[in-house]
Amino acid sequence: MKTKDLSEEVVIGEGRLRIEDVARVARREAALRLSTRPEFRDRVARGAKYLADLLAEDGVVYGVNTGYGDSCTVRVPPELVDELPLHLLRYHGCGLGEYLDEDSTAAVLVCRLNSLAQGYSGVRWELLERLLALIRNRALPFIPSEGSVGASGDLTPLSYVAAALVGERDVVFKGRKRNAGDVLKEIGLSPLRLAPKEGLALMNGTAVMTALACFSWTRAEYLTRLCSRLTALSVIALRGNRGHFDPRLFAAKRHAGQNEAAAWIFDDLASAGTNEARLQDRYSIRCAPHVIGVTRDALGWMRRDIENELNSANDNPLVDADEPAILHGGHFYGGHIAFAMDALKTGVANLADLMDRQLALLVDGRYNGGLPANLSGSFAERAAINHGFKAVQIAVSAWTAEALKLTMPASVFSRSTECHNQDKVSLGTIAARDALRVLELTEQAAAALALACAQGIALRGRQAGAEFPGMEAAPQGFVEDIFRFFDFVEEDRAMENDLRKMVSMIRERRWDLYPNE
């Protein structure tokens, strides 16, 4: 596995982390360290000391010397308190489903580390250093994605983080699934002996849903830009009208995201002509900024809520070393992430639907302004047996339908669990997983539309006798880059590999779209 240049650095303990910070560290685009400021380390240490002193004085603290959840009335004998964290992480080792990928798992560790670093969790500095070591060494817990109801946080998936620290279960290290204890030894660490609250502090939080939300947000933000570029390319291929995106028109309706998308498309079409034969284009073209703009505007409040969760203490109970006091509450509840992800998947699915409709226009000989049916590149007698993008359009309809189906909000399906102690739960992790699946399907639709636009523009160029008719430098460069790996479809061929390559390029954010905005 190639190591990336980590010249950039993200520091925990010197201010708020942003969504992009989590993503950069998780993707190994930036290094991570803990602040060396004495007041930061002192705050963490004071919380751990206060908790230890309280226990020494026979104080009662939920989850430290009591049972968990509905068992909070059960007092744990002093001689068994040290064993309690191990029981918590072990009985929660029941996750199923697909395992989180490496970048998502690294993001989970960053989110949990940043939350514990707020100084309210009563954990030792040593625990923060151990989490940092897992991130730096890319020794990543093997975390199943299913099993969390999102309150008390992500207990089951985060139990795999706690287990890795104590040398139990498996981690992914250097591309291989390995025993956690063996990997700890290999990187020069011994299994951590958890202090009484540290198992609960590690598990009783929203790190999994928050990590997935960070990646969902970055992918959705990029898709809004890509969808704007593809709308402009669709206009060029369809011989549409630039006037639908005129700033004077959008000055009359003040949604910022809508105006932003319209301006991007308008600029991309600066050299495009006007279709005098049709005064108004169909809604999937004319109203594209209104669709894209909804998601653009929603991303603002989603960023606010995701980053507030990222930079919060979200376990229970909290330790206030300044008062001092033990504060029992419910900050593990992932309602804000759940609502943001339910909304995000709806906004993104609408992008899929928009692109599906644009592709449907491009392949239909009745509506595509004189392009060949199905964007076939064959002519004369061979046109009878070639079908171009016909099946691709069918596949996009399937992906779009699945994306739309998944927009049912997860957060309204709360289930009472754990002896009716957890009787109202967020389901934030399910919402975040749904959002990632909707994003995956929408990226597939975008990949297909991008290839279809390139094909359509090439066909239009053949008709006009010019390779790139009426195109600005940025959209033209985009199409030229596609044709560096994508061959014009003259004769029918299997396009799976073309689509997979295009999806990969989208997920890598290959194109720096509208960078000056």
Summarize the main sheet: 3 strands, antiparallel
C-alpha termini separation: 35 Å
Strand order of the largest sheet: 4-6-7
CATH class of the largest domain: Mainly Alpha
The CATH architecture assignment of the largest domain turns out to be Up-down Bundle
In which range does the helix fraction lie? 40-55%
Mean pLDDT: 94
Task: Kindly describe this structure.
The protein has 517 residues and is mainly α. It has two domains: 9-205, Fumarase C, Chain B, domain 1 (Orthogonal Bundle); 213-507, Fumarase C, Chain A, domain 2 (Up-down Bundle). The protein is 51% helix and 6% strand. The chain has 18 helices and nine strands. The strands form four sheets. Strands 4-6-7 form a three-stranded antiparallel sheet. Strand 1 (9-12), helix 1 (19-26) and strand 2 (31-34) form a beta-alpha-beta unit. The chain is elongated and about 90 Å long. The model has no long low-confidence stretch (mean pLDDT 94).
